[in-house]
Amino acid sequence: MSDSDTDEENVIRYGTPLEPYEEDEVPAKRKFQEPADQYAVDAHGRRRFHGAFTGGFSAGYGNTVGTPEGWAPATFKSSRSDKATISSQRPEDFMDDEDRDEFGIAPRQLETHREFSGQKRQRRQFFDGPIPGEPVLEQLVRAVHDTAAVRMLRAMGWREGQGTGERLAKAEKKRAKEQHKVYGCYVPPEMRNENPTQEDKDSSDSEIVYDTLFAPDDYEPYILQRKNDRFGLGYSGLSRHSVLGNLVGEYGDAGTSKSHLTMKEKGKKVSIRGQAFGVGAFEADDDDIYATEDMSHYDFTLGGPAKDKPKKVNAKTNNVLNGFVKSSVPLPSVPSYPPPALPRDYTPAPAGSRRSRFEPIKEAPRDQGLGRHELTAETRGALLGETPVPKTTIVPETIPVQSDPIAKIVGRNVNFVSNTEKKTELDFIPIKDSGKEIQKVFKPFVGDPLKQARYERYLKNKDAILESDSNIDRLCEWERDRELAEFEQAAKLYKPLTGIMEERFTHAAEPDDAVNPLCAVAKSTNNYGLATPEQIEAARIGAFGTMTRKETSWRPESLVCKRFNVPEPGTTRDEPKKDDKPKVSYSIFSYLESSVHDKESFTKEQTKFSGSKSLSIDTVTKSKQAITEKKKDSIEETTSQTSVNTGFSKRMTVAELFLKESEKDLKNNEQNVVTETINKFDKMDLYKSIFLSDSENEEEALKETNTKDINDFIEKPKNVERNTSPPRGIFANIDFDELNSWKRNADDKIAETKTVNVTTPTNKTTDNEKCKEHTPETNEDGNVYGPKIPDNLKKRLEDNNTIVNDFKPIYRNKEERDIDSSSESDSWVEAKEIKSKKDKKKKSKKHKSKHKKSKHKKKDR
Amino acid sequence: MTELELSNLVTIKCKQQVVRAVRFNIDGSYCLTCGADKKIKLWNPHRQLLLKTYGGHANEVLDAAGSCDSSHIVSCSADKSVILWDVATGQPVRRYRGHASTVTCVKFNEESTMAVSGSVDNTVAFWDVVSRRQEPVQVLKDAKDTITSIQVTNNEILTCSIDCHVRLYDIRVGKMISDYIGKMVTFGSITHDGQCYVLSCADSTIMLFDKDSGELLNTFSGHESRDYLLENAINEKDSLIISGSASGEILYYDLISSKCVKKLIHNLNKPVISISHHPTDSYMLSASEDEIKLWGTRLMEMEQ
Asked: Residue ranges of region Disordered (chain A) (predicted)?
């Protein structure tokens, strides 16, 4: 048993064993088959054959008809209309798909395209024409039909009769010829029986040394000769057609290249290989004529006699093993990999020494790869040939602007950055500076120093330029207005980078000592962030609340809202982001364009466009009128805002009042008065925009009907820069002045509110009051277009109607107005506001007390 | 006034070098300590049990918060990253690297679907915890200096900044209210009734502001802030305001009278920077150096 076990272990089986037969079972010759298995079915599982009677092949759908529905008689369909589309019928149209199968009657199979098959060469045809051979015409006119391989070879530079590759000298070419490719074992050159005479001949030929290069030889295909005799392999009998021929054998081998008449034993004997009868006429020795046929005469080896070759080899190669050949080509040298170059300041750490972890770590060298990192700013500058900037604090000399040659040549709008900048500021940022004011003043008006000075003053205090301009008489009002707008634009445009960046950063309160980060830092006390001086003041006295509070719209991301389970706030109204975008694009070109206009061109334009009536007015008053028009504009707008439906006539009357006013002023001191009125009107606009109520407007409207006829005389404000050709097409019936006046004046008013904010008196309490007063006003700005003024406000306005009436400039002379603008308006506002404030305080107190109560309650619990 | 008979119930040595923040979890049964050793530890402070240590930050952990279902922790660190942790496995689930500088504070929203973090880079970032999004959903760049603390209610986010402003973002209205405080605000918390916020200022005062009007309601002083970013807390009944102090004391102020009603001594002259009040009970946790202490009444402890 154990033996058998070990036997089984030792046997390695392949495949699956057959089922062992039961001893008494006789193996059936044929396996039993289910009847279903006996039917031949096609690919679709249909019965392929129906037996002889039912006939042949399956056909149609389910062996019945061509459709799953069964047989249906086809309705007649005329093919007359689509004759063109019907092609001739082909036999395939009548075949089943089985017929096209591999075993069908019209099998289809994949074939290599003729172009790629390489089979395109036509069989030689025999032509029976009068001229034997291939017809010449056919040779000439041959379809260019190369195989892909030939085309590729052509592309590589192959020509018929020429090889591909580099051009060679003749010697090289010959050498290349010698080492042709051999498949399998290669007979070493020493062993090859070469024909020295031939070589010599060649060399003698090549004595005429050509410098010319030749194309390499074409590849000669090794074509197997078809064997058409019945001799043994390698045996070639005497060929019939070359008995005496010293032919080069078909096999290209040295042995066979010899003639059939071989010399044996150095010319003693010439034996003829092969079977022949008789002796040739050229044979001198006729001893062996009647030699009997002997098997020894037969050549049993493939190729020629190679008996003496090994001897040669042995003689030649002494220290080479038999069967081996000394290589002629030296072994390729082993590539050597040099060790990597060490970094410049590498200091080898001895393997034994271990660094303690408390040892100071050498600071890692910065990027060593490029030498330029090691250069300091000074060395770089020296390399570039720059003169170093003197670091000593020089008193900043003010270079006169006119001395700048570029500014002289190019004009005023070129030099954007002032060159009078203090150089000492470049080294560090002053710490004490709160960062509020813009350091570098951009100088867009450098060509006009006076204007630049005005611009700078404007930047410092936005409305100071209105009041205290020393050389005010040098500019007409309209020009100043224009310039203001220009300044406004410029201030927006030429906000330096620091100005933009400071919105994101605050100044460091302490100097940043980069060398020693652990040095003691003095406690910073004043960090105002973005707080305005008013806010700081309010916080100082503890008046927290509306003063210190600032509300801005903020749009949470929709995903944030989703995650916080809060409906998105911005879904109903439009995005505030869009509102932030300025409606006017402040491009540099628009700015340049506007500044190009000067006084002359402007007046010219005005006289051209303003119509016939204004021409009658004196040119001195014209400029004045421009201002009044502008004012009128703003007033127009305010009134139209408060009461949209009162309409055109009323607005014009308000303008009329201003005209009167201005005319009155003409009699007085001209320029100063105008500025005053402007200021006053500014304020008035503001107040009116806040407090003008519907009732008052009605009052006004009554009066204004009286002065309606004068209105026709007065010009409507015009945009002089506009194309004045009459509107055409769909714009023909639209009054653009009407439309534009709304938008423009809205902007004006915002600017005005700003200026008022800044110029409020420094008195703290009034300041507070004012701000309180202004904040609701600005809030209402947004609601002006809304349905109505809140009830409480209306009531207040009604209460103070008399005071409001006092503001109307028509009824009063100048002295009255002065008093009014200085004291009355303020006091009036204050009184009201105090009242409201009190209310508020009460409310808040109530709230607070309530709050406290609740707290107490809680506590008592 | 039983609640003021507080005593030190438990003292735990965290062995975290310095505990930067200590936070109760949502129901007050566990607490998290953020250490300068770059690790967060989860404790049961009542039983002095260390439950888990979460390691993965590359620098000091400055704040942490537990999710509403206590399945996740979000933490922020001086390595500029915010990490969301799985509580059970202790593995970081997500690591958010949106901030440009040290992240000082982090909070979950009410449903723990979003984490809000504030950083020294002056920004507040909203991180969507639910999705796999790696970028912040929204970044608030209004502050001009370091964000010191964040509070998140169901629809509001209160951010306190060194730039002396407190900003309240109302998601429901889509409005940002910024209040100028005039002092650097080191910590802000919102009362449980949501009406006031309590701001710890750098000049050793705590200010109570009305949320709606922005008016100052009360000022509390008596503690000492020195240069520390002290935290404050409000007790569960909104009646007391608690503050740590650089002197090692913990001061209880009455919200109405602004008087100091209780002084607890954690460890004299070792600043108590982080404190956390139990959401429903009068337990309070304070951290000083690597020691946290649980304060409460003995009676309560007996009940438990």
From this structure: 1-34, 61-99, 335-359, 758-793, 810-861
Q: In terms of DSSP H, where are the helices of A377-448? A: 377-384, 405-410
B174 interfaces chain A, CB cutoff of 8 Å: yes
- Domains in chain B (CATH in brackets) are 20-240 (2.130.10.10)
Structure tokens at B48: 């002095």
The torsion defined by the Cα of B3, B5, B10 and B14, in degrees rounded to 10, comes to 70
**10 Å Cβ neighbour count for A636?**
23
- Determine phi and psi for B135, rounding to 5 degrees: -90, 155
Average pLDDT over residues A51-71: 56
Among candidates B109, B122, B239 on the partner chain, residue whose Cβ is nearest the Cβ of A858:
B239
Locate the chain B residue with the closest alpha carbon to A851: B195
Among B212, B204, B217, CA closest to B175: B212
| Cβ proximity of A858 and A840 under 8 Å | no
Among A residues 575-594, those touching chain B with beta carbons less than 8 Å apart: 576
Signed CA dihedral, A765, A771, A776, A777: sign only: positive
| Positions of E strands within A547-690 | 549-553
CB B84 within 8 A of CB B40: no
Q: Does B144 touch chain A (CB under 8 A)?
A: yes
Rg (CA), chain A: 57
Identify all chain A residues contacting B183, using CB atoms and an 8 Å cutoff.
Answer: 539
Collapsing DSSP to helix, strand or coil, B105 comes out as strand
Point out the residue among B109, B182, B184 whose CB comes nearest to the CB of A540: B182
* B218, β-bridge pairs: B208
Using a CB–CB cutoff of 8 Å, tell me whether B47 touches chain A: no
CA A320 and chain centroid, separation = 70
- Global confidence as pTM: 0.39
When pLDDT is averaged across residues A392-406 and rounded to a whole number, the result is: 45
**What percent of chain B is predicted at pLDDT more than 70?**
97
For chain A, say whether B135 makes contact (Cβ under 8 Å): no
Mean pLDDT of all residues belonging to chain B: 89
Identify which has the larger pLDDT, A334 or A246. Answer: A334
Compare A786 and B32 and report the one with higher pLDDT.
Answer: B32
Q: What is the DSSP letter of B135?
A: S
Neighbouring C-beta atoms of residue A202, cutoff 10 Å: 13
In a 13 Å sphere around the CA of B157, the CA atoms on its Cβ side amount to 32
Residue B3 distance to chain A (closest CA, Å):
11
| Predicted confidence (pLDDT) at residue A95 exceeds the cutoff of 70 | yes
In 3-state terms chain A splits into helix, strand, coil percentages (rounded to 5) of: 45, 5, 55
C-beta separation of B292 from B286 below 8 A: yes
Cα angle A536-A542-A546, degrees, rounded to a multiple of 5: 70
Quick one: CA torsion of A379, A380, A383, A386, rounded to 10 degrees? -100
Q: Which two tokens stand for residue A236?
A: 């070639």
Dist. CA A150–CA A145, nearest whole Å: 10
Shortest Cα distance, chain A CAs vs residue B30, angstroms: 25
Q: Which residue of B has its CA nearest to A563?
A: B113
Q: Are A401 and A407 in contact (CB under 8 A)?
A: yes
How large is the angle between the packed helices A619-642 and A736-759, nearest 10 degrees?
Answer: 90
Give me the pLDDT at residue A719, please.
52
Q: Which of B127, B94, B107, B117 is nearest to A557 (CA)?
A: B127
What is the distance, to the nearest Å, from the Cα of residue B231 to the centroid of all Cα atoms in its chain?
A: 7
* Beta carbons within 8 Å of A343's beta carbon, 6+ residues apart: A368
Sign of CA dihedral A780, A782, A785, A787: negative
Residue type, A331: L
B128, B109 contact by CB (below 8 A): no
Interface check for A775 against chain B (CB to CB < 8 A): the answer is no
Tokens of A496: 């330096």
Tell me whether B279 touches chain A (CB under 8 Å): no
- Whether B182 contacts A536, CB under 8 Å: yes
